[in-house]
Amino acid sequence: MPRIPDTDLQRLKEEISVQRLVEASGVALRKGGKDFTGKCPFHADDTASLVITPHKNLWHCFGCQIGGGPIDWVIKARGVSFRHAVELLKEELAGSASVPSLAADAVPVKRSTVRALPAPVALDADDHALLAQTLDYYHQRLKESPEALAYLKTRGLDPALHPTLIDTFRLGVADRTPGLRLPEKNRKDGAAIRERLQKIGLIRESGHEHFNGSLVVPVFDAAGNIAEAYGRKLRDDLRPGTPKHLYLPGPHAGVFNLVGVVAAGQCLEGERDVILCEALIDALTFWCAGFQNVTSSYGIEGFTAEILAAFKAHGIERVLIAYDRDEAGERAAEKLAAQLIGEGLEVLRVVFPKGMDANEYARKMSPAAQALALVLRQARWMGSGRPAPVESIQAEPVDATRPEARPSLAARTGAPGAAPAPTARLADDNPGDLPGELPDELRMPTGACEWRIRAWKKIPRLRPCA
Question: Is the pTM here over 0.70, yes or no?
């Protein structure tokens, strides 16, 4: 479960006035020196044993022998959990009109069974809408989650450098807060909505969120409906046996970044190729580095008939398998290559340094975009025969805000009739960073030493398909 950032807690403790919360609860306070006193609403109090210390923003009841700050007051006054109290105060601080004011009378309660926060979904929505609304809620939560944004940055997917990434792929984070907003499960509506969320795979039988503590990546079909969702745990310090990669229950569905596959199929004949990754994070890495003709399997055994059907329906001619460079990835790439070649597709293997995947390679190489272009350019031909050497590949910037207008990039062969070499597509959020402006040397730190790759500019560049 994602922990609440200390900065968020500190802000609530400093910016939410305990005195205002107590007075708004109907407690009359009288000034006594630097403090204020009043009758505690949590027990029969005839002696004004409640003390408020404004300069410390704390409260204490000498009768109950309890006290604390703004969060503690809301927990006691509203009968809610710590996380629920934090969410209430955050909404109050934001001035949300949809949240009942915390000025409600403070009465001693054991635990509230009426949710004060608005529900993230419509209780009468159908299953498709329920899934979409939940993932839209996750999407909004990610934009407010320092932990999730920091995770993206550590994976080389920094939203500051790629400002369209989060909205383009509707990335989200599951942080356990939907349960604080749904009606309680002991109420009719609460039990019904939880049963439906469990049916579509967002809640487990235990009542916990399926994707709790994960970055959530939805996969859309051609109509824009969510067909699949992938979750990657934000933290690696998990209990042994806890899976880091999650999907919705049932068979995999949908094609990740289908728009990129469609665009690849619109290139000229001989230039229609797609990069196929092992994991969605790797595919996002290629996309951020400027290669838009990318999609992903759902793990080493997760290449589906639907992905193959999309390749064939959109006229894809060539697949660059960019699976991890480990034993499992190599075996899966060989097996998949045989299948794709049998379907009439040309196949090349993108070869990373041993033991690396696309994301790790991109994070260790600088600049990442040119490093990925290098391994694409040097992808190993699979199957019988071998393509002729490529004479030149060039690139040009595109408008990253208009996905449908981004031109594909393709290789040209040196000999007539020879099979084309690997191609790529540029989706750089900063079109000014053209290959000609990049350093003359690639650097790859590997612990005790740093590898330097020189003369890469002599390698032919990418050319857009006309």
Answer: no
Residue 263 included in any domain: yes
The upper half-sphere exposure of residue 427, i.e. CA atoms within 13 Å in the direction of its Cβ, equals 29
Question: Each residue of 25-72: pLDDT tens digit?
Answer: 888 998 888 899 999 988 888 888 899 999 889 989 988 889 998 888
Residue 104's pLDDT band (cuts 50, 70, 90) = very low
Reported as a single tens digit per residue, the pLDDT across 365-395 is 989 999 999 999 999 999 765 554 443 332 3
137 and 89 together in one domain: no
Quick check: is 389 in a domain?
yes
Which residue range forms the structural domain that includes residue 323? 258-464
Does 366 lie in the same domain as 234?
no
Please, what is the average pLDDT of the chain?
A: 81
- Say whether both 156 and 283 belong to one domain: no
Residue 108 pLDDT grade (very low, low, confident, very high; cuts 50, 70, 90): very low
Among 247, 268, 296, give the residue marking a domain's end: 247
In a domain, 210, yes or no: yes
Q: For 405-449, what is each residue's pLDDT tens digit?
A: 333 333 322 333 333 444 444 444 443 333 444 556 666 666 666
Which residue, of 247, 276, 292, is where some domain finishes?
Answer: 247
Answer whether 37's CB lies under 8 Å from 30's CB.
yes
Q: Are 194 and 90 in the same domain?
A: no
Whether residue 107 is contained in a domain is answered as no
How many domains in the chain? 3
Residue 82 is encoded by which pair of tokens? 């710590």
